[in-house]
Amino acid sequence: MSARKTSADETWEGGYRPYDLVKEFVIALVVVGMLTVALAGVFSSPDKRAVTIAQWSRADPTDFATTALTELDGTSTTATYGPPYNTTPGAGQKIGPISLQRLAGVRIPIETARDFVLAPLASLASDQPALGRALRVYQQATDVQRQRWTDAYAKALTHATFRNGALLVPSGDYGPVEPIVARLVAFARSGGLDGALVTHSQFYATDYTKPLLFMADSTYLQGLAQQEHLLGGQWGMTNETGNFPGQSWLWLYTFWYQISPFKTSTNADALIWAIMAILTLALILVPFIPGIRSIPRRLPLYRLIWRDYYRSVEHQPESTTGA
Amino acid sequence: MTATAGGSEKRSWTATVRRAGLRALPPEKLLPDEQPVYVASWVYVFGVLTVAALIIVIGSGVVLALKGPAWWHVSSVGLFLNSVHLWSVELFFFFMVVHLWAKFFMAAWRGRRAMTWVTGAVAFIVSIGAAFTGYLSQQNFASQWIASQAKDGLNSVGIGAFFNVLDFGQMFTWHVVLLPLGIVVVVLAHVLLVRKHGVVPPLPARDSVTAESGDAVGERDGR
User: For an interface test with A, which of B57, B144, B171, B194 has the most A Cβ atoms less than 10 Å from its Cβ?
Assistant: First the structure.
């Protein structure tokens, strides 16, 4: 039999010693408070300013124009994302045969051509007849004609330069696409597009879905994130801007993105979420999982924690220690 | 036992709840001034350190909330308060993870203490959500990038359709109201369960060395 002083339901039947819980709590609060204040005073906290569309379009107008064109012709990441933004056929990650993404449906409808390009410019058209005409021509054109213009303009943008506040491309037949994109670049650089994307229907706004999706489609934002070692391949969210600790407790979630097959899987997000859901449930239910709940008994670490107790019971005769 | 002047037991709902509360947690259990002799390791301190860090997190968060989400970007006092908030969160997670591992290696769910473990683990999970929404509420580049990356994971399993990380207003509300409330409730339940069941005793001295089948012993662990 074991030498112990506990009953079958693990109730202690041995000795007690004085223990001042309130004093311990007060000391802990003071120590943690002082430690926190010291860390805050010495290291401060990071605050890299938020990027605006105005900043992006001023820093890299060609990238902005290229991204805007993909929003207009429906080839951007957001335009082809699928639920919850749109109904792109076949889009949506799957876990085996099930796509929870598709089952949830389109709850935050985004049509990039309308929401990111045409609607913001339409608000300017009343004062700019040429812009109004360009928008009408584009909207009344056939899909084939629109694609011919956008394809040609996409090629032209690879040779674009930006001088004296204007985007310059080789001459060609771009139809209304050239003035539309040029006007959007100017609107973005003025700061107007930032506001137009968040305040389309009301004065107060807290929803930044549209400008963030627009910027997330760019290479500009990716470049800034790479400089701050925040890309997924750089352990992403476990990092923080600058040399500050980030959400290191997400290490296991981020870990899966670093290894195959998740690193290259088109269903990586859904599969990793499924794995993490199972592991989270397992963590919560550890006491009920045979094998896992027995690990502590097989490892000697608890003997370190209770070393005084084991030293005392193992150096006493059985008759004086048995429950 | 509570009695009226006439000797009959009070039957009001309030009296019944009070009796049940006192039965489950009499004052000497709720605030004991002694502990079993085996409670003699520094590792026990990490539970109370976690609660202490949580109080600093909530205190600094309340001040930041009082001034609004943009204040800390333009005020040196605000930046300091934000720093206190950040570092107390980092310490909170550090203490909590050490506490969690220590309790795992103690098999602290033994003896009808399974719900104590469950509430602790749930507190850890809810805390991750609270910290995550905090990063989204910073209104800086980190928030933008984290939102643009995290949306893909949440969208991939359908959660993003209802929990939109690109919507600052929604995330801010979750961060300053819903998730802190959840943490406080779960942590309170966890602490009360610890007080109710007491600190788990050591594993059997000789069983622990010679046990062939941990599961056979463990069958009673989760009850």
Answer: B144
